[in-house]
Design brief:
Layout: E1 2-10, H1 14-25, H2 28-33, E2 36-44, H3 51-61, E3 65-70, H4 76-86, E4 91-94, H5 106-113, E5 118-123, H6 131-147, E6 156-163, H7 164-171, H8 180-187, E7 191-196, H9 210-224, H10 227-257, H11 264-297, E8 304-307
Parallel strand pairs: 1-2, 1-4, 2-3, 5-7
Antiparallel strand pairs: 3-8, 4-6, 5-6
The structure holds uridine-5'-diphosphate and magnesium ion.
Magnesium ion binds at residues 96, 98, 100, 201, 206.
């Protein structure tokens, strides 16, 4: 008999916890027919509502439900990592609590896993999402694939089924700044993609504000590309060349036409522009330095308060 571990990160999902369970359990007959046992690991990411109590209720009904509660909100990335560490299964799957990762796809995914190392899902549309968010998300993936060697699929969900080998590979990446969408690509292995239409949240509301997503995208860029640093260096070289050319131009003009006092406005523009670029480059450097700082501290990725 083999074991399937389902990891469900939850942050203020009191309404979704049991709805999710009911939906997931519909696969029980299928799993049994394939001789697969399952464990359902809810990671309570510092919820401020009754998420933990809801999971405990489920645990009393069904031994296969587990709960790991964090001491505070560490973010979905930390929750996913904790889930992987706790999961004992031969197969591991990540699923959102809000049913946006439909558990009904599991049989299809398990079938596909027969001749692949992992089965990932992507949504083919972004129905129900604010248009601005979709626009920037698309731009982000476009840019990411250009500036990073690691491939990232637009519309990819974190809903992914993996074999043990891939799970161990991901666990070997202990970095503090985690960007799982990149990590999945980075570890490689052969992945089958399954597409489905976007499903709207079953209950509750999204935990991602636009600003949180912007910061998350910067995490992704810094974690999987050093291109911004290269761009900063090239900007420096470019500006030196331009400055040198200007110098020659000014000297030659002085020798030919004398020195009329003019050009104050253009001077100010040039100064503002160059100092702006300088700040930008220092900022880019700072982004990398800040992440390096956090990595060097080697803080734990999450802290567990309670485990059932
Ligand atoms: N989540 C989490 N910690 C967080 C934010 C979100 O564990 O800090 C969980 C959340 O409970 C849900 C999943 O991550 O199960 C996806 O979050 P959400 O549905 O809010 O994101 P969206 O689907 O809108 O992108
Ligand atoms: Mg969701």
């Amino acid at each position: 008999m083999s074991l399937l571990s389902a990891i469900v990160p939850c942050y203020n999902e009191e309404e979704s916890v049991s709805i999710f369970y009911e939906e997931f359990i519909k696969n029980e007959a299928y799993l049994k027919s394939k001789d697969i046992d399952f464990e359902l690991i809810y990671i309570n990411d510092g919820s401020k509502d009754k998420t933990a109590a809801e999971v405990k209720k489920l645990h009393e009904r069904d031994e296969r439900v587990h709960l790991v509660s964090f001491s505070r909100n560490f973010g979905k990335e930390a929750a996913m990592f904790a889930g992987l560490e706790k999961a004992g299964g031969d197969y591991v799957v990540f699923m959102d609590a809000d049913l946006q990762d439909p558990p009904s796809l599991l049989p299809e995914m398990l079938e596909a896993l027969q001749d692949h190392d992992s089965v990932a899902t992507r949504r083919v549309d972004r129905k129900g999402e604010p248009p601005i968010r979709s626009f920037f998300a698309r731009r982000f993936y476009r840019m990411m694939n250009r500036i990073s060697q690691t491939e990232m699929m637009d519309g990819a969900r974190d809903y992914r089924l993996m074999k043990r080998q891939m799970v161990d590979a991901i666990l070997s990446m202990k970095e503090y700044n985690r960007f799982t969408k990149g990590i999945f690509g980075w570890v490689g292995f052969d992945t089958k993609w399954i597409e489905y239409e976007n499903v709207e949240r079953a209950a509750g509301e999204t935990k991602w504000s636009f600003w949180k997503l912007v910061l998350y995208s910067i995490d992704g860029i810094v974690a999987f590309s050093t291109m911004p640093l290269q761009i900063a260096s090239f900007a420096g070289i470019l500006f030196c060349i331009v400055a040198f050319a200007m110098m020659i131009f000014v000297i030659v003009r002085r020798l030919i036409f004398g020195d009329p006092v003019a050009g104050w406005a253009s001077m100010v523009c040039i100064m503002l522009m160059t100092s702006g670029i300088q700040f930008l480059c220092v900022g880019i450097l700072g982004q990398y330095l800040a992440r390096t700082y956090m990595e060097v501290k080697k803080r734990p990725i999450y802290i567990v308060k309670e485990e059932i």
